[in-house]
Amino acid sequence: MRTTDAMTDRYRLSPARLAVVLLLLVGLWSMPLQAELAVARGSGSGSTAGPAGATSDRAEWTYTLKAGESFSGIAGELLKPSASIHRLASYNRIDSPSAIGTGDQIRIPFAWLKQRPQPARVRGVSGQARVRSAGNGAIRPLTEGRRIQAGDTIVTHDGMVTVELADRSTIRINPGSSVVFNRLTRYGRAGMTDTRIRLKHGGVSNRIQPMIEEGARFEIETPSAVAAVRGTAFALQADSDGSHLQVTEGRVAFGPPGNSRDIPAGYGASVDPGGSGNMKLMRLPPAPTTNSLPDTINSLPAELTWQATGARQYQVDILDQDTGQPVRSEQTSDTAVGLDGLANGRYRAQVSSLSNDGISGMPTDVAFQVDLAARAATLLEPAAGATLDSNRPRFSWRYQGDSEKARVEIARNNSFTDLAASSDWSRQESATPGKSLKPGEYHWRVVTEAGGNSVATSDTRMLTINGTLDPVKVISANYIDRQVRIFWERNQDASGYLLQLSEDPSFEDVLKEATVDDTTAALRLIPGRRYFVRLRAVSESPIVGRWGPGRELYVE
Q1: By three-state DSSP, how is residue 506 classified?
Q2: For labelling alongside 371, which of 107, 310, 344, 445 has CA 20 to 30 A away?
Q3: Distance CA 330, CA 344 (A)
Q4: pLDDT, tens only, 483-533
Q5: Tens digit of pLDDT for each residue in 9-31?
């Protein structure tokens, strides 16, 4: 008994020790439940994926049934053929699937979700770019609106391309780049995307939507490194010196395959060619401070300025706010850039300092809108009611607005529904019509355009064209002894032709002048002397003819 009592005393716990043991047991009992709940929360849970988007074997997504939906219907819609409804019911420990209704949650492993290709779409193209189809290998010019399928390759020459992914993330491909879209996948109605891209050479700038779903993935591979994100803004380049990254928002897992590091916003990193593992980190140049710019610009040219940061050069990109497509991209050593030639619309200017190695630093974003209004031009010449002999008169006007272009419209009626001629659009303040005007009365005006979509129309003036007959050209000359017979073109509006003969090509001293009704005439010339002949059409109306080119004649 004494031994038993001693052993009992040895293992008897004091109240304090007993409390510690109970806490440990409670903790051990609760850990599996907490882990399971974290996974089962779906899009609202913390991610178990690493920076590269790799998920654990237990990664799953939670779907909440809506009104009118059933367990079997959702399972049939979301599951791969290899994952049966019965298997999903067993996974969720559901004995009676028909009892599951509105508001109930279903846990679905990501590996069981149905996947489908989700093409990207080209939002903008500037310059020259081509796409190589994965389907048949055909290479075609890249155009806005083109759908990019998995396996397609975009090659830019002097152009820039903006591509929008299924989740509205955008990729801007720089000139001189080659990008392969290896994978473009969406997990059924789950909405999660799996995007994997290979940057063979060149550069890309990316704005990736936040990936709250555990199975979502965005990854860019270069010949020497991999960049993986879960929602951020970053730029990546691949060249003969390796791979280079600049992170401006969020974090990017970057490095040789299997050896990545988290690079936060404000930093850049470079990996040597071939993925040797050597990584160089650097702090990006700070964002410049821009001076005030109106939210809405009503007059161009305008100017965007910023305070000097000590950088030798600055990168300035003007982007279309809606598409993300670059409108202008330039480098300058100045602290200002002119804003001119922009159409009406919403823009975002990005200004960043460049390091001595040419690496772009943190950008400053400036949003602004261009809203130009065209104003009616003031007409100068011809005067109202003018009568002109020329059938292609010159018109002139004066602009009243900024950054405008205009064209002349000439019509046979004052409603301008019967347009006789017009000029090309030009920023000049004068123009001639694109074709000759027949004799008669006309109405003319100047149409002004600003910003690409704002139009104004000037007052209308009357004009009378007496016109001129087309110049007459000699077709051929036949020599018979001392006589020469010449033939010329017929003018349908002519009542006859005036012929002049001279010994000098300027026709200052005319030897013979005669009116001829036909389109041929015989001339007797002195041998050994050179002559020149020309013709002009004449008409019974006030229309004046123009002399045709002189034709040289010679009789031996």
Answers
A1: coil
A2: 445
A3: 21
A4: 999 999 998 888 999 999 999 999 999 999 999 999 999 999 999 999 999
A5: 444 545 445 444 444 433 433 33
User: What is the tens place of the pLDDT at every residue in 342-388?
Assistant: 999 999 999 999 998 889 999 999 999 999 999 999 999 999 999 99
Please count the residues of the chain: 556
Instruction: Provide the token pair at 306.
Output: 């910023």
As given in the structure block, the two tokens for residue 320 are 């279309």
| Longest CA span, the chain | 163
CA atoms within 13 A on the CB side of 428: 11
Q: Which of 360, 353, 350 is nearest to 320 (CA)?
A: 350
Q: Which helix (H) or strand (E) holds 29?
A: helix 15-40
State CA 385 to chain mean position distance. Answer: 47
Bridge partners, 397 (sequence order): 379
**pLDDT of 217:** 82
Q: Which residues pair with 246 in a beta bridge?
A: 235, 268
pLDDT in tens, 408-462: 999 999 999 999 999 999 999 999 998 988 888 999 999 999 999 999 999 999 9
Q: Provide the pLDDT for residue 21.
A: 40
CA-based nearest residue to 125, from 368, 369, 327: 327
Query: In whole angstroms, what separates CA 1 from the centre of its chain?
Result: 93
The CA R_g of the chain, rounded to the nearest whole Å, is 40
For residue 379, the tally of other CB atoms under 10 A from its CB is 20
The position carrying tokens 């821009």 is 290
d(Cα 152, Cα 161) in Å, to the nearest integer?
Answer: 14
Answer yes or no: are the C-beta atoms of 110 and 75 closer than 8 Å.
no
Q: 121 is written with which tokens?
A: 């779409």
In the chain, % helix, strand, coil (3-state, to 5) comes to 10, 45, 45
The b/e string for 503-539 (b: 16+ C-beta within 10 A; e otherwise) is eeeebeeeeeeeeeeebebebebeeeeebbbbbbbbb
